[in-house]
Amino acid sequence: MTDAENEIELQDQQFKQIENEQKMFPLVADRLPFDLVILDYDAETSPDYYNKAKELANTYGEIRQIRGDGNCFYRAVFVGILEVCMKNEEKAKQFLETCLGWNDRLLKLGFPDWTTNDFCEVFTDWFKKVVNKETTSEKIFDDLNDDSQSNYLIIFMRLITSGYLKEHSEDYAPFIDDGRSLADYCSTEIEAMWKDADHLGISGLVLATGYNIRIEYMDRTAAPNGGWHYDIPADCNETPEISLLYRPGHYDIIYHK
Amino acid sequence: MTDLIKINAKTPTATYDVEIAPGATVSELKDQLLTKVANATKSQLCVIYTGKILKDEETLDQLKIGDGYTVHLVVRSAAAPRPAPAAAAPTQPTPQQPTPNIFGAGAMPSAQSMMNNPEMMRQVMDNPMVQSMLSNPEFMRTMLTSNPQFQQMLERNPEVGHILNDPSIMRQTMEMIRNPNMFQEMMRNHDLAMRNLQGIPGGEAALERLYNDVQAPLLNSTTGGNNPFASLRNEAGRDRSDRAGQENSEALPNPWGPPAGAGAGAATGTASNESVGNNQQPTPVPGLGGMLNSPGMSSLMQQMMSNPEMTRSLFSPEMMRTMRETMRSNPSLMDSIIGASPAGQANPQLSNLMRQRLPEMLEMMENPEMIQAMQNPRVAEAFRQIQEGVSILRTEAPQLLGMMG
Amino acid sequence: MEQSSLLLKKQLAELRRVPVDGFSAGLADDNDIYKWEVLVIGPPDTLYEGGFFKAILDFPRDYPQKPPKMKFTSEIWHPNIDKEGNVCISILHDPGDDKWGYERPEERWLPVHTVETILLSVISMLTDPNFESPANVDAAKMQRENYTDFKKKVAQCVRKSQEE
Predict the structure, then answer these.
(1) Chain C contact for A20, CB < 8 A?
(2) C vs A contact (3+ beta-carbon pairs below 8 A)
(3) pLDDT band at B402, cuts 50/70/90?
(4) Secondary structure element (H or E) that encloses residue A217, with its range
(5) Per-residue pLDDT at B120
(6) Which of A135, B246, B253, C65 could lock A129 by a disulfide, CB 3.0 to 4.6 Å apart?
(7) Topology of the domain covering B5-75
(8) Predicted pLDDT at B337
(9) Residues 224-253 of A with CB under 8 A from C
(10) Residue of chain A minimizing CA distance to C110
């Protein structure tokens, strides 16, 4: 075996290991006290993070962790939306309308009808049960934790994100800086599973779903005092209903006290 | 029988629909298809469904092939899979040249054996005639752009067009055609232009076809079987005696015209193989005549002839000089060709005639007026017409030509 | 019932009714929707013309999130098919497979791909091999350095496939 092959082999093992470790976490965990986040940091060795976590704990009471499989942003937002819809029938119906509308929007953009229709149908059929209360909260979270079901729904989220970006390609193309076309970018970064969302993905999903989000950034740049967060879209007037906690490379859902 | 079902059988180019009983066998389906598919025998038909080649005894209902269903139909070629492109050679005379050329009786030379003989290959490629042709970017460009396959590719991939306008890329492309090793080297070096060409759909295949259209015919032309001067010689003999006194401006035969008697080769292959064998090692011949005999090239050359710019560059003084020099520097060339030709051996008179004419022709080529005349597109056009006339004569009144010879 | 099996059943039914040019697909085992048998018809105007190449498509349970594997069971000599018959083209690789980092990333597996798009990619691979990442290094080398032998070898496979 050559060095290069060896290297690939080792990398492979590492990926497998990370994948397996991640699979020990549920795709969508239960809501747990936010204090758990504080426990992750040591006041002595990483005071920046520790302080930030403590500060956030004043505002947020709970956290729902999402599996770090590259789909976490899409999954977190989706679960956030679901929770809103489960409490508010009007909003649920509205979101169903939005999703039903996406089928045609995607086809119009040239997505292959075969598979696109399938993803759209599976998603809307599933979501109709939520709207019509033909399912229970328990069943919903079971589905969300079933790899096959859950990821199918995520594919839909990715497709509409890509769809929104493509519908507004003139606005977004300038943000792609490596010479790729927007279409290339979308198929590589958005439509492909297990790919982390970056800024375009975040914007796209928020605007495609019509749900604003607030992201709390847990990184070293965070100031220890004062609410340091981003609302997406930046010009939204009300406090978004969905809040996410960003820690480098990962998103979880957090809940106001 | 009211409950027939309709089955569509789809080939890459056509769809045939048949109406048949639901319980029919695959064999019966094939019988029905035979009435619609032209020029096929039953054993050539291959019906494919759900990943399987269907057996004759299976029935449609067993296979769950219902009304309105579509199956794949492949009509297998009657013979073995056709030969690889490099070895492809005309196997039948084209309708315009029904009479096998007496001198052109040649084994379809084995390009494959040439490929396996780097030394021989190098000789061919080092031949000044071949080289000067290949190293003339204008010539190459015109040749490439007039190649229908290349044109198609350009239409589909306009970005390749810039290659033609970049002399350095052109040069590399030519080098590649000349030299398969270079081709490999370039691939290894990941030369950007080439990679781009290969990266586009069909690019690789087009390159390969070009390679086969240009290089393989050059190789083919060297084994001595296809007498490169056959057409030259015939026309020279006939036309001049025919129109003695008129001389000059039109008299020089067009060596670039459509080949006479392309491909009598296959028929007399054995004989010429032997004669080549007798010669020990075939002499590298500036074999444009033979090259013209290859199917790809002859169409290409015909196109060239109808392109004035092309004709001019072909008949440029350098080209003529190279050709002359090649013939002069190797006086035994003609002899060996004449000697190798079974017809030449059988007819000593004819061989003599040929030998006598040779110096005359060489002289003509040296005549500046002649060279100039050759560069006149209208003259070239006239030659084409003469040739066409001769070929009609050959079909309609062979005995006449025989008398002239 | 898993989503993947529903999607596969739909595709199978569609392909049975209206097959796509260049290949034919069915189940290798009627009780296993995840294992398909495919017959690739050697594309016209290629060295593979005239051949009927059998292959197996193996779908994972988490299809279409993850791509299927494709393996030729007929002998086939091609730079992008390894000697065991495994097809190595980028769209059959998950985006997470970073060892294929030198390929153009947009060609990776996407959930929107179907059996049809996979097979069309395979057929275009037969027409235009990708030399950048050969799975059969010997075939790639032979194609470049000794094209005559390469053609012979492919022709042998074509003949063999006709007799199977």
Answers:
(1) no
(2) yes
(3) very low
(4) strand A213-217
(5) 47
(6) A135
(7) Ubiquitin-like (UB roll) (3.10.20)
(8) 43
(9) none
(10) A192
Quick check: A111 contacting C, CB < 8 Å?
A: yes
Closest to C129 (Cα-Cα) out of C72, C75, C80: C80
CATH 3.30.200.60 residue spans of chain A? 30-64+213-256
Q: Give per-residue pLDDT as tens, B250-296.
A: 333 333 333 333 333 333 333 333 333 333 333 333 333 333 333 44
Q: Residues of CATH 1.20.1300.20 domain(s) within chain A?
A: 72-209
Is residue B394 a contact partner of residue B99, using CB atoms and an 8 Å limit? yes
How much is the pLDDT for B243? 36
pLDDT for A211? 95
A98-121 mean pLDDT:
94
Virtual CA dihedral for A33, A35, A36, A38, nearest 10 degrees? 160
Q: Within chain A, how many helices (H) and strands (E) appear?
A: 11, 6
What is the separation, in whole angstroms, between the first and last Cα of chain A? 57
Least confident of A160-169, A198-207, B323-332, C103-112: B323-332
Q: Give ranges for CATH 3.10.20.90 in chain B.
A: 5-75
> For chain A, what is the mean pLDDT?
88
Facing B81 at nearest CB: one of C16, C54, C159: C159
Q: Does C53 touch chain A (CB under 8 A)?
A: no
Is residue A191 within 8 angstroms of chain C, CB to CB? yes
CATH classification code of A72-209: 1.20.1300.20
Per-residue pLDDT of chain C (164 residues; tens, 9 = 90+): 577 888 899 899 988 888 888 999 999 998 999 999 999 999 988 999 989 999 999 999 888 988 999 999 999 999 999 999 999 988 898 765 544 444 455 478 889 899 998 999 999 999 888 877 789 999 999 988 899 999 999 999 999 998 87
Q: Within 10 A of B280 (CB to CB), how many other CB atoms are there? A: 7
Q: Hey, what domains does chain C have and what are their CATH numbers?
A: 3-163 (3.10.110.10)
Q: Look up the CATH superfamily of A30-64+213-256.
A: Peptidase C65 Otubain, subdomain 1 (3.30.200.60)
Residues of C in contact with A8 (CB under 8 A): 99
Q: DSSP for A131-175, please give it.
A: HTT-S-HHHHHHHHTSHHHHHHHHHHHHHHHHHHHHHTHHHHGGG
Q: Which residues of A69-106 are buried (b: 16+ CB within 10 A; e: fewer)?
A: bbbbbbbbbbbbbbbebbeeeebbeebbeebeebbebb
Report DSSP letters for B117-147, one per residue: -HHHHHHHHH-HHHHHHHT-HHHHHHHHHT-
Q: Which of B52, B112, B187 sits opposite C131 (nearest CB)?
A: B187
Nearest C-alpha in C relative to A120: C112
* Each residue's pLDDT tens digit, B334-348: 454 444 444 444 455
Nearest residue, CB atoms, C114 vs list A12, A15, A112: A112
Residue B374: the pLDDT is 56
C105 touches B: beta carbon within 8 Å: no
